[in-house]
Amino acid sequence: MMSILNRESKILEMIKEKTTGLFLSVFNVLINAIFLVVWIFIQYQLQQVMNYYQLAEIIGSSLLFGFQVIFAFFTFIGIFMGLLQDIILKYHRMKKRIEKEKKAKPP
Predict the structure, then answer these.
(1) Cα–Cα distance between 29 and 82 in angstroms, integer?
(2) Cβ atoms of residues 32 and 38 within 8 Å
(3) Helix ranges (DSSP H) in 54-104
(4) What is the mean pLDDT of residues 83-104?
(5) Residue 83: which residues within 8 A CB-CB, separation 6 or more?
């Protein structure tokens, strides 16, 4: 009876660990997607304002393009840093899991 309860608790713990990791991954993907949608929306609105007020002719299209490139660069840096952090975290978890299984199964 006790071994069945112990086995069930281990299974529940494993399921909880895997679902937590899955939810965190989905959450991170959603945050990155929202970030990109906001960036696209801002770029679209900026283009509409520039066309309406004819700012490209007044300020210069190369200067405005430069600001768009800088904004895009810093926007994507945040997203890529988050993705890199997720990849590193998953790598370390996988490494710990492999080491744990090696210790559990002696040769």
Answers:
(1) 9
(2) no
(3) 55-59, 61-104
(4) 87
(5) 28, 32
The amino acid occupying position 18 is: K
* Residue pair 28/82 in contact by the 8 Å Cβ criterion: yes
Residues of the chain above pLDDT 70, percent: 94
Angle between helices 61-104 and 2-53 (to 10 degrees): 170
The pLDDT tens digits of the residues spanning 33-82 come to 888 888 889 889 888 887 888 877 777 778 878 888 898 898 889 888 88
Q: What is the DSSP code (8-state) at residue 54?
A: T
Contact (Cβ atoms closer than 8 angstroms) between residue 83 and residue 35: no
- Name the amino acid, one letter, at 43: Q
